[in-house]
TrEMBL record:
Region (Disordered): 145-178
Protein name, per record: Translation machinery-associated protein 16
Organism lineage string: Eukaryota, Metazoa, Ecdysozoa, Arthropoda, Hexapoda
Annotated Basic and acidic residues bias: 155-172
Superkingdom of origin: Eukaryota
InterPro entries, alphabetized: Tma16 (IPR021346), Tma16_sf (IPR038356)
Family of this protein: Belongs to the TMA16 family.
Length: 178
């Protein structure tokens, strides 16, 4: 009886450990994909740029799905060839789109220039993922994103664009007080 309980506990530990490894690998693949898609000369990202990157990330399987559809249309078979791969892709796409539309996709805080530079220099070692600041980006958040007025991002954007970043609410309040 005691041996059976111990065996069950060990199996449960192995299962949890394996799930953690799979989750870490999936997250690492996401970060590598994002890192590889970043433009090397960009020092700071805007909300629009990150939104475009997220849209591209969500569409990363489009080409593979087109290839599968092409094979379906050309083949003489009645069954669905590559059905399991197609189903996995469809489930992944729907889950990630739902995440993006609701609570947000979890990635490195690439709106922070320091984190952006860390991601660029990252060698893909999953043990170093814990050094990143992880943030969830949703479509709504990115559409309404404005860098904090005194942040490093705002100062870099100001240098790049040549115009100060102004908080419209504060400037409106100042006009009303005058």
């Amino acid at each position: 009886m005691k041996l059976a309980r111990q065996t069950i506990k060990e199996a449960a530990r192995r299962k949890v450990k394996m799930e953690t490894v799979i989750k870490k690998n999936t997250f690492g693949e996401k970060l590598i994909w994002i890192r590889d898609k970043l433009e090397p000369d960009t020092k700071v990202l805007t909300g629009e740029m990150v939104q475009k990157l997220m849209e591209e990330y969500l569409g990363r399987f489009d080409e593979e799905l087109e290839q599968i559809q092409l094979k379906h249309s050309v083949g003489q078979r009645k069954g669905r060839q590559h059905a399991s791969r197609e189903d996995v892709i469809q489930m992944t796409i729907s889950r990630e789109k739902e995440e993006y539309e609701t609570c947000g996709i979890e990635i490195v805080d690439i709106l922070n220039p320091i984190q952006l530079e860390m991601l660029r220099k990252w060698d893909g070692n999953l043990g170093l993922v814990q050094n990143f600041k992880i943030t969830r980006y949703s479509r709504k958040y990115l559409e309404n994103y404005k860098p904090p007025k005194n942040s490093r991002s705002a100062k870099l954007l100001e240098e790049i664009e040549g115009k100060p970043t102004v908080d419209p609410d504060k400037s409106l309040q100042q006009e009303m007080q005058s």
